[in-house]
């Protein structure tokens, strides 16, 4: 199995623009904040979210460059793992996400004191509603 049927110049021109496009996108996320003036919390949330987006774009970029380097190294006959590397990364992320959700659902009922407090507040609200109906 051979790589793309490009000559070296076309390949370099194609891949040369990718880092620039990614860095422009990251700059757009960081500097185009639409927070209300004086609302520090809203501004903070946008900065944190933009930082997470920049982190995500960085991870995608590093993974893509690693995969392209492996494809370049094994140009003539890449192994099965190299060809399906992005699929394996996505599969690992899905498995991590599902495991994380299952663990959090399993551990959710550990706060007995908070549960009792919440049930007490619900009973108190019901009593208040009954008093309001009588008046």
TrEMBL record:
<protein>
    <recommendedName>
        <fullName>Dolichol-phosphate mannosyltransferase subunit 3</fullName>
    </recommendedName>
</protein>
<dbReference type="GO" id="GO:0005789">
    <property type="term" value="C:endoplasmic reticulum membrane"/>
</dbReference>
<dbReference type="InterPro" id="IPR013174">
    <property type="entry name" value="DPM3"/>
</dbReference>
<feature type="transmembrane region" description="Helical">
    <location>
        <begin position="80"/>
        <end position="98"/>
    </location>
</feature>
<comment type="function">
    <text>Stabilizer subunit of the dolichol-phosphate mannose (DPM) synthase complex; tethers catalytic subunit to the ER.</text>
</comment>
<keyword id="KW-0812">Transmembrane</keyword>
<comment type="subunit">
    <text>Component of the dolichol-phosphate mannose (DPM) synthase complex.</text>
</comment>
<dbReference type="Pfam" id="PF08285">
    <property type="entry name" value="DPM3"/>
</dbReference>
<keyword id="KW-0256">Endoplasmic reticulum</keyword>
<feature type="transmembrane region" description="Helical">
    <location>
        <begin position="53"/>
        <end position="74"/>
    </location>
</feature>
<comment type="similarity">
    <text>Belongs to the DPM3 family.</text>
</comment>
<comment type="pathway">
    <text>Protein modification; protein glycosylation.</text>
</comment>
<keyword id="KW-1133">Transmembrane helix</keyword>
<keyword id="KW-0472">Membrane</keyword>
């Amino acid at each position: 199995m051979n790589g793309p049927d490009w000559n070296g110049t076309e390949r370099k021109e194609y891949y040369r623009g990718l880092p620039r496009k990614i860095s422009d996108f990251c700059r757009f996320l960081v500097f185009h904040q639409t927070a209300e003036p004086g609302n520090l919390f809203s501004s903070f949330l946008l900065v944190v979210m933009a930082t997470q987006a920049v982190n995500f774009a960085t991870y995608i970029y590093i993974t893509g460059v690693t995969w392209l380097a492996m494809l370049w190294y094994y140009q003539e006959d890449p192994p099965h793992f190299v060809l399906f590397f992005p699929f394996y990364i996505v599969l690992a992320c899905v498995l991590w996400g599902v495991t994380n959700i299952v663990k959090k659902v399993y551990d959710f009922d550990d706060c007995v004191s908070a549960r009792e407090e919440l049930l007490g507040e619900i009973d108190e609200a019901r009593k208040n509603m009954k008093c309001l109906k009588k008046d």
